[in-house]
Every structure is written in structure tokens, then in C-alpha cells.
Amino acid sequence: MRGAILAFLLGILLIPIAGFVYFHFGHPPVAVADQPFPLEKQIVRVPLNARIDKEMLGSTPIEVNETNLVAGAKIYREQCAFCHGLIGQPSTIAPHMYPSTPQLWSPHRKGVVGVSDDPSGETYWKVANGIRLTGMPAFGKSLSETEMWQVTLLLANADKPLPDAAKSLVTQPLNMGQVPPPPTQSH
Known about the structure:
- Helix 5 (120-129) packs across helix 6.
- The protein is built from seven helices and two strands, in the order H-H-H-H-E-E-H-H-H.
- The protein has helices at residues 2-24, 40-55, 66-79, 81-84, 120-129, 145-156, 164-169; strands at 107-108, 112-113.
- The chain has a two-stranded antiparallel ribbon with strand order 1-2.
- Strand 1 and strand 2 form a beta hairpin.
- The longest helix is centred in the N-terminal third of the chain and has 23 residues, at 2-24.
- The model has no long low-confidence stretch (mean pLDDT 86).
- It has a domain at 52-169: Cytochrome Bc1 Complex, Chain D, domain 2 (Orthogonal Bundle).
- By secondary structure, it is mainly α.
């Protein structure tokens, strides 16, 4: 009995020591090209989705109109297109990120374009808060609430015809040699 208790306690001590050695000597996958931990995506997705469901706003406080869609397209082009691509021009860096960055103007599962099938509150939450360990920044301090809703409305309508001025902004190729401007500061 005493030996079993000692073995049990030794086992409990060995687990954190083994974890420390594993992490300390550079064995975990930390490079984008590394294979992920088993179930890594599922482990991260569950709390992310729970948090978004708990905190996302229900309705869009601004209306879908040409002014807001064009403003959203300008912001998207300046802040989002480098990673998330444009109509007919997927991002060249997205496939090399982990997890890979969704192309918000490309159809995916069952022909859905980008996040146009997601609730607007979910998209707004992601824009405002960002997503840790994905490269998705939080724009809650660099864009106003109206600007974040304008981008959200644009993306929610990515599967619908856009006003010509908005479509032009999300169709014209980016000059990839040009560094995008820093996020706009709102007061």
C-alpha cells in the first residue's frame, strides 16, 4: 500500500517536470509550419465561441446604406485587405499564417462568401477584440464603434451586390510593396 502511494505521488510530480522539460527545451510546435498539438484547434475554438456568444451584440446600430458600405470598404482596404484579401485577389500571406487567415471575399462551405453567414454581432466582436494567437488584432482602441460597424456591415453584405464605389475599393489590387497605413485613431 505504501509503495502504491509513493508511486502515485512520484507520478504526480513527474508530470509537471516532464511538461517543464518539454517546453523548456523547445519541443512544442511554435513555428507556423509546425504540426499543431492534437486537438489544438478544438481546444481553442470552444472557449472562443463561448465568449463570443456571451458578449456579442445583437443588432447593428447603423443602417445598411451606400455611405456606410463605402466607409466600411475604405476601412477594410486600409486595415484588413492585406491579410484577408480582396475580391479576386486573395492575400499572399494568409496561407502562411497559423491558423491560416480566412479570405473574406472568397466563397467557402456551400458557396458562402467570407463571414456573410455569421451574425453581425459575432463579426463586430472579432473586429473589436481580435483573436489571440491568430494574428487577428483588436481594433477596439484604433477604430471608432461606427467604423467597426461599417466594416462589419460590409462583410455581412459580401454576398450581395455592393454600391459601385464600395465594390471598386474591394476590387482594385493592393500595391503589395506598399506598407498599409497605421490604424486610424479615434477620439
